[in-house]
Design a protein that fits this description.
- Two copies of one chain form a homodimer.
- Chain A has 319 residues and is an alpha/beta fold.
- Chain A has one domain: CofD-like domains (Rossmann fold).
- The first copy, chain A, has 14 helices and 14 strands.
- In chain A, the strands form four sheets. A seven-stranded parallel sheet of chain A has the order 5-2-1-9-10-13-14, sandwiched between helices. Chain A has a three-stranded antiparallel sheet with strand order 7-6-8. The first copy, chain A, has a two-stranded antiparallel ribbon with strand order 3-4.
- In chain A, β11 (225-226) and β12 (229-230) form a beta hairpin.
- In chain A, α1 (8-19) packs parallel to α2 (46-55) and α1 (8-19) crosses α13 (292-307).
- The longest helix of chain A is centred in the last third of the chain and has 16 residues, at 292-307.
- The two termini of chain A are 31 Å apart.
Chain lengths: 319, 319
């Protein structure tokens, strides 16, 4: 059994590789919901949508978000009525937002809505939100206290970042099944997602970090930092803002209390050697996913490395 | 000042003629909201939408509802998720439903939402819902107690009709401005809409019928019954179900307590003569609107007739 913690576009690509080599009944995906927003009054969950569309074969590969081949006629009409249009909800994508909003208004939890949408789209992999409570990633900048989507989509992550917090996290509970999925997994994978705004919100939900520390699973993270910079997006900026090194060592540090193995890109072989000298297990593989074959190859390489027996304690002590 | 009571597609065509010959600041439209429904959890007001789109030059002339040139990609995606698709909300049309739902969720009244949408679409004519309370036209049939849209759109008005009622009407209040618009108008027009399901819901709102009876305005109805049958839709079926004759006499009877003048189609000249003999003032004009010129001509003819001085009492007594 494999449980994946994920969010964002890097995470969706990684999950796409996994789903092609792992039977669906062996996969559980726990998804960041810190980016969720009310858009035109509809409940939108960007990371749940990306993962669900990916698993349903509907994700736009060019954009990395939304439904492939989608149109934006409703969005244009909203713009004509003077409503905001910076979050690009497509016409087909809107069906998901409207359906989810209706399920929530009918009293369903986000877990239940997620599972119903996934099932209607033919997704067999289990997809869980990190929590059914509202946890909001807030990015403090000189321009104000922004929601993640305001910071990332509306303002193109141009603002200097003072700090990041997860509003509501301390009162949140993990979604039903999330803790068990971590505790009972053979392998827990952290996708090459932004540690600060895709993985940290999940870790901020009380109980999740403890479950990772206590799980019998091998816990393996794939570094989203390659050659000292984020593959895409603001992961580097945000790690620096949170006082982490923008390096594979910074990623290892971010997950220090529960990580068994860090998978880093082959171009970080030298840094990997240094990191091994601190006692961290590190596996090198091509992690940048341009083509579908790259996604499958990375998934295979990560699972192979995860299934290797850990080095004998003596070897670690020698390091 | 002219106030129009309207609903449905016949009403929208009639209003289209009026708006082309009357300055916008002289027109108030009071619209049936008995057909309003929650569709996918969104608040949809079919008659408010048709009138607003018509006044904004956006109404699909071919369909008589929805936005011209609209697409249905969200609807298709909803269908793929197993959701109902019988109410055809187009992608551009959805913008209105989403925006209105958001305004209502934010605590605005239906009047305020209507006025905000109209203003964003550049409509200068005043458009009022009949009420800010929920009044639901329910059609009792052997197949069950249906909402109007279920009866009309979903089931194509194929069910025999036992009765029609306006749930919630007795507790409803007229929308702000509606009573004044009737009382202070020079002319009140009843559009050639279905009397039972487009006009009667408005009349069922406490205070409206009284205002019509007491108004100093000339009150003029255009008959939607031509040659003993409805021009379109189920007006005939529904009038019969409500024990009204399916004739211009039935229409006159429907509005008997406040009507000053009935405009009927030229082909009903003989029936008009009979009706005049009962004391009703009747004006004959071509009322079937195929082309835009027909709409303008009908509006002109109705206003001309409305502005004629009423016949001297002696003439009525002689009849």
């Amino acid at each position: 059994m494999i449980t994946v913690l994920t969010g964002g576009t890097g995470g969706a690509k990684f999950v796409d590789g996994l789903r092609q080599i792992v039977p669906p009944e062996e996969l559980t995906i726990i998804v960041n919901t810190g980016d969720d927003l009310l858009w035109w009054g509809l409940y939108v969950s960007p990371d749940l949508d990306s993962i669900t569309y990916m698993l349903a074969g509907k994700l736009s590969q060019e954009r990395g978000w939304g439904v492939k081949g989608d149109t934006f006629f409703c969005l244009n009409a909203m713009g004509q009525m003077g409503q905001p249009t910076w979050f690009h909800a497509g016409d087909r994508d809107l069906a998901t937002h409207i359906f989810r909003s209706k399920l929530l208004a009918d009293g369903k939890t986000l877990s239940e809505a997620t599972s119903e949408i996934a099932s209607k789209l033919g997704v067999k992999v289990r997809v869980l939100p990190m929590s059914n409570s509202r946890v909001e990633t807030r990015v403090l900048t000189p321009a104000g206290d922004l929601s993640f989507e305001e910071y990332f989509v509306q303002r193109w992550y141009q603002d200097p970042v003072v700090s990041v917090r997860f509003a509501g996290a301390s009162d949140a509970e993990p979604a039903p099944g999330a803790i068990e999925a971590i505790r009972s997994a053979d392998i827990v994978l952290l996708a090459p997602s932004n540690p600060v705004t895709s993985i940290a919100p999940i870790l901020a939900v009380p109980g999740i970090r403890e479950a990772l520390r206590e799980s019998r699973a091998r816990t393996v993270a794939v570094s989203p930092i390659v050659g000292g910079a984020a593959v895409t997006g603001p992961a580097g900026i945000l790690m620096a803002a949170q006082k982490f090194a923008v390096s594979i060592a910074g990623v290892a540090d971010f997950y220090h209390d529960f990580l068994d193995l860090l998978v880093v890109d082959s171009q970080d072989a030298t840094a990997a050697e240094e990191l091994r000298s601190t006692g961290m297990q590190v596996h090198c593989a091509p992690t940048v996913m341009h083509k579908n074959e790259d996604r499958i190859a990375l998934a295979k390489s990560v699972l192979d490395a995860a299934m290797q027996p850990p080095p004998a304690p003596a070897a670690v002590e020698r390091a």
